Amino acid sequence: MTFVAHVTVTTITEGQTHGYRVSYKEGVMEQEPRPCAAVKGTQIMVENLFYNVAARRKSFKNLSDEYARILDVIGRYAIHKINVSFSCKKHGDSRADIHTTGVGSRTDAIRSVYGPAVARELVEVTASDNEPSHSVFKMEGFISSANYSAKKTTMVLFINDRLVECTALKRAIEVVYSAILPKASKPFIYMSILLPPEHVDVNVHPTKREVSLLNQESVVDNIQNAVEAKLMQSNTTRTYYVQKTLPGASQVINSEEEESPSQKLGTKSQKVPVHKMVRTDSSNPAGRIHAFLQKKPVGGQESQGDLAVMRCAVRQRRNPKETADLTSIQQLVNAIDCNTHSGLLDIIKQCTYVGMADDILALLQYKTQLYLINVVKLSRELMYQQAVRRFAHFNAIQLSNPAPVFELLMIALDEEEQAGLWQESDGPKDEIAKLNMQLLEKKAELLAEYFGIRIDKQGNLHSLPLVLDQYTPDMDRLPRFVWTLANDVDWDEEKECFESLAASVGDFYALHPPLLPNPSGEGLKFYQISKEKCSIEQPTANEQQNIDQENPANETNIDQELLAEAETGWAQREWTIQHVLFPSMKLFLKPPNHMANDGTFVQVACLEKLFKIFERC
Fold first, then answer.
1. pLDDT in tens, 374-396
2. What is the Cα–Cα distance from 601 to 80, expressed in whole angstroms?
């Protein structure tokens, strides 16, 4: 400070008859300390700040903005150091804008700085952990209850008595409040965290304002759980404020009781024409094909509580995971937003799911129009956008048994050979698989940090990213996914790398038809083959005719085990499309412009046009 301002220090120790004063300029003491009259304590006066740094002085904004920043910093320290009296006022004013006594409680200090509206809604929260393998910390603080809301989050965070910021902790707490506070409402948070100094990395930001912690995920999770538990305990009551009727204001008329006959007649005359009437509601399942079909239980999934599903959806809708602060990811997100087709977006948001038309196409209704949509293309785009938006914030799907990457690559090479994409001239399969495995092992740290794909040093795959809640991809396509990670990803350029990785994830998680044929209709012939001849490949027409002559189609020549597996897989897919894919599309999907012309959406009927046809008949 003495290098960029004129600093004067006046101090006196207890029991002395006089104090001493000394001045500093350009980093050196101007003269020896001189005796002077003083009050007990030390006073430091800073004048002409940045008098010798013209460029820095010009960067100052107007006086009001600079003073507001000073008040913000002093106010934060005032509620943290409650045993110290703070006072701040603008030069020339007689009244201090901030004043604390230094003898009250922390709640009193918060009331003095932020007002009684904050202080009366405070809830004390604590958390700690003494397990060295996870984290070592102690946290004390105050958070606002469910009755408080503001337009902007106020978070006062001190780590080891130093005012700092921690973006990960702030986001985690905001996610907890998102399920409690109304939309666009923000909380007040004060926290003081004590932990070993060597566990704090202050070299995250040039100004040392933002910090990172050792075992940060564990610390954040513990604090988040403590905040959520405290809020759940204090969420038993809510307070609502209403405004009294102003003097002279007319009384509100009950529309149901006081509506005049002429108004009722006017309402009746504004009926919607029959050929434009929408007879379904996107929020009501009545009218879907499944309502008229016999229901079959699928893995007990219908028993899941609707309340838990709704809460999860609300949290995701209000607070989607923020992407990492990487320019390449921001460019990918902006490209998704800028390339959104507004008409298709409205269809997705307001549509009603009708049912599956075949293995790939689904029927949906939008207003008075009926559309066929390609489920595979839509789900692939949804998963790609989710992979981009959840970048570096994935939860993990842990595999029950680690999958050897080398064996997965060998299976993928066998599939390539069956498709005619691999020949002996390309080289031995085991050598190709070994090279690809070495590549993935080198990129294991990137895959684990940004996409939740964890591969250990022994070459075993342990986890996959959770791209969409309540959805697990088809593991029959896992070998193909590992193959695309090694061969279809551009590892040289950052943006292209993340884009191709997200595209590979999107294709793997897309709702492709199961590998086993659909047992409904013509697909049943596949399962009428005897068990000795049962294979994944379909028999030829002559082979099928010979099999039918040898073994007539009855219960004895159907592979019941394979048929049951296929029925379960197809029923599971259809359930996922209706109960997971469509609700998720309404929340997250932003359909790109090319889907309007590539056959992803096809209008097959329109009520107005149907009425015209019937009128001509």
1. 999 999 999 999 999 999 888 88
2. 58
